[in-house]
Amino acid sequence: MEKNYVDWYSWIQQSTEQTFSSPDNNLVTWKDAITGKIFSASEQRLEETREKIIKKVDSPDRIMELLRPTVQKPLCREFSSFPWFSDDNKSHMPFVESAHLFMVFSFLLEKDKNIENLKEWKMDVWKTFCNNNREKREAAWYALNRSCWDCPPNPKLDLQLEQTKVKILKGGPYKIKKYYLETDNIKEMRGASVLIEWLGENVAPYIATEQWIPELIIYSGGGNLMALLPGDTPNDLAIRIEEEYRKHAPTLRNAYILYDSNLKEIACCVDKYNELIRAVESKLSARKRIKVYDLTESSHPLDTGSRLKNFNLDGQQISFCEVSMQESEICDSCRVRKSHYYLPLGDDEKINLCGSCLQKHQVGRKTKNMFMSRYNIQMKKNVEPATTLKDISDEIAVVYADGNNMGGIIQKMESLGQMAYFSRVAAAASVQSCYNALEKVGINSFECIAVGGDDIFMIVPATNSLKFVNKLIENFNEYFMDFSRTSEKSPTTLSAGLIISKYNTPLRVLAEKAEQCLKKAKDIIRYDNSNQGSIDFIVYREEYAAESGAIEKPIKTSLRPLTLISSCELVNAIEQLKKLNKPGKTALQRLQAAVEHAESEVEFQIFYLYQEARSGNTLQKLLKKRMNNAGYDYIAGIIKPKSESKSSVKSCTFNTSENARAITLWKDILDLWDYVREGE
Fold this sequence. Notes:
Elements: E1 5-7, H1 8-14, E2 19-20, E3 28-31, E4 38-41, H2 43-56, H3 60-67, H4 77-81, E5 83-84, E6 93-94, H5 95-110, H6 118-130, H7 138-146, H8 155-163, E7 165-173, H9 176-180, H10 186-209, E8 217-221, E9 224-230, H11 237-248, E10 254-262, H12 263-266, H13 270-290, E11 311-313, E12 316-318, E13 324-328, E14 339-346, E15 349-353, H14 355-366, H15 370-379, E16 395-404, H16 406-412, H17 416-441, E17 447-452, E18 455-461, H18 465-479, E19 493-502, H19 507-523, E20 534-539, E21 555-556, E22 562-563, H20 564-580, H21 585-597, H22 601-615, H23 618-629, E23 632-635, E24 638-641, H24 656-659, E25 662-663, H25 666-672
Parallel strand pairs: 1-4, 19-20, 21-25
Antiparallel strand pairs: 1-2, 3-4, 5-6, 7-9, 7-10, 8-9, 11-12, 13-14, 14-15, 16-18, 16-19, 17-18, 20-22, 23-24
Helix pairs in contact: 5-6, 5-7, 5-17, 7-8, 10-11, 10-14, 17-18, 18-20, 20-23, 21-22, 21-25
């Protein structure tokens, strides 16, 4: 496969890719471990960036910001992608992750030497790494190299690493969607979202490292946490973290374990790393199996009528002063567990709640969604959280999106550093893609239920919702772009399910439908050779019914599920049709009725050509261009996938037998007509 080299300096400055097939021999080249991009840069440029990092990172707090960036303060492209070269003259992980591991290895090796001033110690480790001072911390340098490549063994240092006992902390919440969807109340969903992030990214890391340094957290977020802790870490640490979850989110499933190891076993790569991770995951899976949950009758204090205690959540006091204890048969919110509390809502209204729903309700009332708060800061907005779904719009869209081939990339990870880098990129891709899509489409009212790892669950206004999803996928794909140019593996893209409905439709129903759409969207990825990402959508109404028997008709009445380019061209076509105002919606409805009653392609095409002749061939001109861009032939109202010899853009359908079937777009256009704005 031909390699394409990307000029790194142009890429970080302009967000564009200047590529060439053979770099100057005087340039330094390296391959990004996640995206697969092969970068090139001069030694002078790299040295300038290194000096810039050293100058900017001049305190322990700045070190923390660099080594553990958050989605609220993501790293700039220059710092994020800056390489570090191990002793084999290759870059196996970025500078940030290399410095992070060096700090962790140094602490684990030196912890017992009675470090008197941690801040001074951190600055000394940082300077040692930045200056490539190999005369200090020889064992840490050796461990870092072992984490990158199969370096020559050093018996003396191997013994030192083996004698350094380490406990690996691994875990997080799981079956998260079930926790969100215990209720249809938007405040409680928001509360669930806040609690999950707070527990996973604040509480658990703090408990894990409060005796040590926070840099011992290798990665956290997206439902996963991993830390390397000293060997004398208390054995009950994982249980303590689980107890915090039980205290604040009793029905959220979670599991944490400690795995006994040593630094020699941890400082490894490729096969040995994969063996270690399999062993850790096996113990974590066993922990999940032995944890027994009874979500109907819980022995948790919140579900036995105990008095609740106020607590502080990131500076916000969560109070239960207005809550009274009163048992009733069923919780008004989840409709599953018994209620032990009631909460006055004003105007003589009250709601009976179980302990778990009460926690979520109070947190959702008292706090803003963290995603929304960060969005307001970064994008300089002032979006207020919705009190009800009607505050978003009379008609809403539920978006459920998930990454494709994430598992494939994780399987290719060769070290802890690469896994930490992947976690950072995936978190940034999800969050920043949402920010940019909301901004570009102009959405100012929304609710983010979950954005973590490669999982996205949002509620937006129905109008322009498909355009939002298209932008979301485009932005996400850009984070992993170019992977296919240097690897035989499929690139990482995003697929999404989209459900449009009235605001008062039960949210759990819409989420279930969105998940079904997501599965259909993911199905076509296997047949989409251009690897664009995909979308499936439903406009959900009371009269909605699945298209039973549609497969028997001579003409397929929908292009769904859609590849990204097909979805973009569909939106573009609707925008143009609405701007031209001809043919109108009524004429399109006549075409759809003709398709449904046609006995053959020819019968419909005769009707179509007659209608087009009356309207000046507007549809033929517009849709032929749009469908050609998407890789389809458009002939007299019928579309069919182009053969590969005819099209540089490859269309895709579910299976090869579908390729021969005629398809029409009228149902898709009509379904979306009211939810796409007129083009400029």
